[in-house]
Amino acid sequence: MTQQQQQIIKLLEERGHEVYYGKGGYFVKDIGFITTKQAQKLTGVEPQKREHKERITAWGDYATIAMLNGRRA
Predict the structure, then answer these.
(1) 38 backbone φψ class: left, alpha, beta (φ>0; ψ -120 to 50)
(2) Cα 14 vs. chain centroid, distance in angstroms?
């Protein structure tokens, strides 16, 4: 569980909600399932910045097969 998820759960529990983390969001008793984005708006937590990674192109035998099949690598 990330630090942001722990922070959201803590803030919702401080408001008196019973919270469980699930894939893609949170289940809040008496409210239902809310997405991570909805939970961020509800608690005022700012979204985490995403890191951009370099694209890894095809190499070796896979690159040859991808080229012959017309797939962009």
Answers:
(1) alpha
(2) 23
| 3 state DSSP class of 46 | coil
* Total-model pTM: 0.63
Phi/psi for 67 (5° steps) reads -65, -45
Alpha carbons 64 and 70: distance in angstroms, whole number = 10
The whole-angstrom separation of Cα 70 and Cα 50 is 31
Q: Report phi then psi at 32, rounded to 5.
A: 110, -160
- Does residue 20 contact residue 27 with C-beta atoms inside 8 Å? yes
Taking only the tens place, the pLDDT of each residue in 5-33 is 999 999 999 999 999 998 889 999 988 99
